[in-house]
Amino acid sequence: MTTDRRQPRALLYSIAAGIGGAGLDQVAAESLLAAERGGFLARAIAFANHQSAIPSARIELLDRHPARLLSFLPREYYIGAKKHALDRRTARRLASGRPRCDLLHTWSGDCIESLRAANRLGIPSVLEIPTWHRNKGKIKKDKTWSEIQRDAAPFPRSVLNRLLVTRQQIMEEYARATLLLVLSEKARETFLVAGIPEEKLFLTSRGVDVEKFTPAPAPPEKFRAIFVGSLSRRKGVHHLLAVWKQLNLADAELVLVGQPTREIAPLLADAPRGVIVRGFVRDVAAELRQASVHILPSECEGSAKATYEAAACGLPQITTREAGDVVRDGENGLLIPPNDPDALATAIKRLHLDRDLAARLGAAGRERVAAQFTWDHFRERLLDAYDRALRMKG
Asked: By C-alpha distance, which of 118, 140, 153, 130 is closest to 28?
């Protein structure tokens, strides 16, 4: 633990989601717990609250904001409307000085007006990036042809388009924030390619509850592979289904935990033998404990939550560098290139045939998360990030 770490006197935290629950909502709750325990949480602004560790008096909810009435719109417009509503509220809080804050922690896409206000007031800011740089490691023009067309759309489309969170907004957020939280080496590389100064990037990670996610007493007799996450092409599910069909392993199952996207649903209708679609499940830990290996052949993630949870459950993993930094090749799993069905097939066959190797990788995965990736570790890294942002402002 850092003993000479600076911490804010009063933190303002905003997120266009909830506090407590799963996914980003859990990240928000764990972040706020660090501030509450440190005695410097001034206020959190969010759309819902599903926890009790943070006093409700410190949480400002937008659960009845008029933006909620736009839920009938297509998802990108509705989400954009919520983000802009949160942003305006946060900017007003900063400008009013109620509460008077000396650090802003907010999220990419949620905060252009908030960051402008923070800049005017000289308040340092920490911007959390849940995935890669918006350009995904590519060099792009300031405006692409499709973005020019978007901005030139006639009424009434022009009104709807103002609800969107644009790439240009996010580029300005990157520029205005004091410190950017990035979740993996791969994500960090995409910011460096885009010209973001290295000193502005803070490499961090998520966490996992190692008391909830625990190994099974013994691996299952049947070889059971599991995928956890949205069933989408971005996560490589189409490759996984094709490879599973090609391998046609004896006495084996592939369990898919997550909601199918429209692009994957037709493939599931003709799924190969041994594929079980669980859909959404509440007890992910129970599903992981019944598996032999976790497979996530994703092509783009920030730092996939499923890799932390599978490791905590003692599972060997087959995944990609693009999914985050939890898995190290040959140490606690096998890393393969994204969009490479041959490499995926080879890795699956290797762990199917060598159960001793699978057991060693799984045990090492559990050891690694317990030593580096609990929520306590997450909060310590976050406090280090706050220290860095405050020092950067002088």
From this structure: 130
